[in-house]
Amino acid sequence: MRNGPLPRNDVVTRNGEEEAVWGLVLGLRGADARMVVTGVKARLAELEP
Prior knowledge:
This protein is α+β, with helices and mostly antiparallel strands and 49 residues long. The protein has one domain. The chain has one helix at 33-47, and strands spanning 13-14, 18-19. Strands 1-2 form a two-stranded antiparallel ribbon. It is extended and about 35 Å long. The relative contact order is 0.10.
């Protein structure tokens, strides 16, 4: 396991103007997709401020 930032390889922008964060969510085999999406949305709402 590695802690800390990853090397910067590329930049993701929002509307071509400001940098943004790109995320990827993977559900485990057998996971309830609806629960995964609900959990991700809840966590994003916590991080928004």
